[in-house]
Every structure is written in C-alpha cells, then in structure tokens.
From TrEMBL:
Single GO MF descriptor: nucleobase transmembrane transporter activity
Spans traversing the lipid bilayer: 63-84, 90-108, 182-200, 212-230, 250-271, 292-316, 336-358, 370-388, 400-425, 446-468, 488-509
UniProt record similarity statement: Belongs to the purine-cytosine permease (2.A.39) family.
Organism from which the protein derives: Streptomyces lydicus
GO cellular component terms listed in the entry, alphabetical order: plasma membrane
Protein known as: Nitrate reductase
Length: 519
C-alpha cells in the first residue's frame, strides 16, 4: 500500500466510478461487492444505507426536530436570555435568527446523507482523509458526550425534584453521597439506564419514539404556559415585563455572543446531520423536514419559554429559568405527575437523537472492527457521567457564553471544511467505495489531508483563541486567552466557519493531484 494517492492532473474530469449505482433521482449506492463487509475502515454501521432502507419522510424529519427542540436545555436557552436582561421580543428574535442561520449548514451537510447513505465520519473522510476523519469525529463525539451528560443530569434532577414534591420531605432529606442525596443519584442512574436501553434497540426504535414523543412534549409546554398565565392573571403580565438592556449600547454586547451561543446549540447537528439524513427517502424529505422542523419549532418553543419565564417573574417576583423548578411549584399531584412524564419524554427524546447517535458512529469510526454502534453508545453513556456535567449549567453565563460559545466556534470550523469540500471542491460528487478504501482517492498522505488539519487549526484558533469571561463569571481571563483575538470571540461560530471554509478552499485550489479533482 502506498503512502500517498497516485497523481491525477486536476484538469482531467473524473468519470463516474464503475463500482457505484445511481438511481434516477440521483441517489447513489455501492455496486455489490464494491465495499467490504468488514475491515479496518468499515463495519455494518458505517456502510452506506441501501436505497431500499432509506425510508424517512418529511414527517419523520420534522418530528425528529420537534422532539429534539422540545427539551429542558433548549427551554433554558430562551429563559436564560430573559435572565440575562432581554425581554421576550429580544429573546425570541435572537433564537429565531440563530436557527435560520444554522439551518443553512444543516441543509448543506445533510445533502450527502440521502444521496450517498453515509454517516458524518465517513463524509469527513473526503476532506480529512480516512485516518484524519477521526479528528473531527472525536471533536464531535467529545461535545456529544458532554451534552449527553448535561441532558441526563438535568433529566435525573427533574425526576428527583418532582418525585420529592409527590413523596414528601424524606425523599429530599436522604443521606448525601458526594454532596448530593442518594435519591438524586438513583434518579440519575435509572434515567441513564433507560436511555441506553432504548438506544440499544437501534435507529428504527428511535424513529418511532420521536414520532409520538414530539406532539406530547409540545402539549406539556403549552400546559405549563396556560398554568403560569392563570397564576399571573392572564397573558398581559407575561408580555409586559420590560427589557433590562433596552435596544441601545447595553443590548448589542449581550446580543452577539448570545446569537453565537444559540447557533452553537445546534452546531453539533450541523456536522452530524448525515447520521440521520442517510435514512432519508430523498433530498426533498430532508430539506422540507428540516426547514419545517428546526427554525419554526425552536422559535415557537422559545416563545413559550420566554412567556412562561416572564410570567414566573410576574407571579414570583423573579424569573425562574428552570422549567423543572417552576413545575415543582404546582399544587396538585396530577400536575406534578404530568410534568414528570413530560420531563422524562422530552429529555430522552433529544438525548437519544442528538447526543448518542453521533458519538456512537464517531467512536465506531475509530476502530470499526472492535466498536459497533451499540458499543459506541455505551461508551458515550459512561463518558457522559464522568465529565461533571452539572457544572456547565450552573449559571446562564457559563451555559450560554462559555460552553455554547466555545463549542460553537470549534464546530463551526469543522462545518466550514465539510461544506467547502463537498460543495466547492467536489460539487457533491463522491467516489463512494473510495471512502472505505485505503490507498485510494481520499488517502492523501498516510490517510491524512494536511490542508484540512491546517484549516481546522487556523479556524479554531481564530474562533476561540480570544475567549474571555467577565470577572467571576467564567473560567477565561477578562482580557481573553489571546488578547488581540478577543474582538473575534463574540462571533466565534461565524469566524470559525468562514475562516476554515476560505482557507481550505484556497489550499485545495492550489494543490496538485487528486486533492483538487472532483471525485
């Protein structure tokens, strides 16, 4: 096996590979025997989904987004903005704009899913190389493991709080273990085990769960809105809470980092959305499903969240940005039980789809012969409880500016490279079998494309190098990690995506050989 691919003059067109079949609608699958059933770079979970098994419809993708958007952390995005001083109009505007922006890379990277049936780490091989794709896969997996831990902790905490209201004081006064009551740890572990049991049943179970979970969670959110509106004496007090920032000089320094944080919330899925769209019945299904599901759902849920949070301020004198804490103020057992079931379904729905599927594929990509999708999911679950996730959501500043801001900057960099490679360099044309074949078109130098690594390093440095925190509000120095990059920190996702896209495109355009050829 050679260390580099054989030279191909960039001006020569690449014919359609003979070992792949193209359907009339443009979707592609490998010819029989073109891709090995197992090996160092392939297993059953990483192979392209056969055309006959790409069945997800527009409704399936819309339901997927409704299920993922309706969860406690996305609720606290909007309510957190209110807690930071915005009024409901400013918070909803920020979230609506962010989700319209992040929808664009979501659709661009999602295109490869229905067309080729491949997951995110395999798509990344085209730009990073067969071995180099482990770099973005590990970045994405690490972020997802943290998110899994955050969601599981919040879900377990919600169960603990609501059961405490139902069962009485002895539940909350249980003996402390590692600083928390053992009953809280029990809720956390039971919830964790239930999630892994569901994901172990596979993607078809996930699709069915999302289909019925989505409308149920929406009903629960509306019920919470009606309840707080009744407590507040109508919807008027919910809409009358003023902005502490106004629309002047105090607003914009909060708006732009908040916007990047909101984008960063779904920047994870803008990378690994092919993990889902690979099951799509066609491009129309994924485009319409995502367009109908993501920005509309997130905006509507944000409106519910800020109205309820504003209502809590009117009723209790201070904004309660945690919906579990607010639901815990219900004064009847039925309301508490309904809130408990809603918290369970909402958290499981998003955690399975957004935070287990991707790292399971990403970890399987590291060692396909030894790690299956289910093994990767189990590893994700274990890592998710080792990252101390409760610290990341301690305050709105840590959650939105530190966690989401930094994550968004790094993931925007990877998205820029994927989009540049798939749309600009290759014009959406891939050699499907070569994505699984060492020594082929995507082998580059010993399995790594240094151009993608360079674009990732530069884009990441520009995106997060200037990260800063206000005194006492976060882990970064007030002047920024790299002071002269501080002005870029508030725009991390956009800076990372634009810088990586431009640099990668330039490096590939000036390269010789297969790096520049359509493949």
């Amino acid at each position: 096996m050679s260390a580099t691919s054989p030279p191909v003059p960039p001006e020569l067109p690449i014919p359609t590979p003979p070992d792949q079949l193209t359907a009339p609608d443009g979707r592609v699958e490998p010819a029989p025997g073109a891709i090995a059933s197992h090996g160092r770079y392939v297993n059953a979970d990483l192979r392209p989904v056969p055309l006959a098994e790409r069945r997800w419809t527009t409704y399936n993708f819309t339901a997927l987004w409704v299920g993922m958007a309706h969860n406690i952390p996305s609720w606290t995005l909007a309510s957190g903005l209110v807690a930071l001083g915005m009024d409901w109009r400013q918070a909803v505007l920020t979230i609506a704009l962010a989700n319209l922006v992040v929808l664009v890379p979501m659709l661009l990277t999602g295109h490869a899913g229905p067309k080729y049936g491949i997951p995110f780490p395999v798509l990344a091989r085209a730009s990073f190389g067969l071995r180099g794709a482990n770099l973005p896969a590990l970045v994405r997996a690490a972020v997802a493991c943290c998110w899994f831990g955050i969601q599981t902790w919040i879900g377990g905490q919600g169960i603990y709080v609501l059961l405490g209201k139902i069962l009485g004081g002895d539940w909350a006064r249980a003996t402390a273990v590692a600083g928390y009551p053992w009953t809280l740890w029990l809720c956390f572990l039971v919830f964790w085990a239930a999630e892994l049991a569901l994901i172990h049943r596979g993607m078809e179970t996930l699709r069915c769960f999302e289909n019925w979970a989505a409308p149920f969670v929406l009903v629960g959110a509306v019920a919470l809105l009606v309840w707080v509106a009744v407590k507040a004496g109508g919807f008027g007090p919910l809409l009358d809470q003023p902005s502490a920032l106004g629309w002047g000089a105090d607003f914009w320094p909060v708006f732009f980092p908040s916007l990047m944080g909101m984008i960063g919330f779904w920047a994870t899925l803008s990378l690994n959305i092919p993990d889902f769209t690979r099951f799509g019945a066609g491009q129309r299904a994924q485009v319409w499903g995502q367009s109908l599901g993501l920005p509309t759902t997130m905006t509507a849920f944000a409106l519910l969240s800020v109205l309820v949070t504003s209502g809590s301020q009117a009723v209790y004198g201070a904004p309660i940005w945690d919906p579990v804490a607010l639901a815990g103020k219900a004064d009847n057992v039925f309301g508490l039980l309904f809130a408990l079931v809603t918290v369970l379904i909402a958290t499981i729905s998003v955690n399975l789809a957004a935070n287990v599927v991707s790292p399971a594929y990403d970890l399987a990509h590291l060692a396909p012969r030894f790690i299956s999708f289910r093994t990767g999911a189990l590893i994700t679950g274990v890592v998710g409880v080792l990252v101390l996730p409760w610290k990341l959501t301690a305050t709105p500043e840590l959650y939105i500016f530190t966690w989401l801001g930094v994550v968004g900057g790094l993931l925007g960099t990877v998205a820029g490279i994927l989009i540049a490679d798939y749309w600009i360099v290759r014009r959406t044309v891939l050699d499907l079998a070569a994505l699984y074949r060492p020594g082929g078109r995507y082998w580059y130098t010993a399995g790594w494309n240094w151009r993608a690594v360079a674009a990732f390093a530069v884009g990441g440095l520009l995106a997060v190098g200037g990260s800063y925190s206000h005194p006492g509000k976060g882990p970064f120095p007030a002047d920024g990690l790299i002071p002269f990059l501080k002005p870029l920190a508030d725009y991390g996702w956009a800076v990372g995506l634009a810088a990586a896209l431009a640099l990668y495109s330039l490096l590939m355009a000036t390269a010789r050989g297969p790096a520049t050829a359509r493949s």
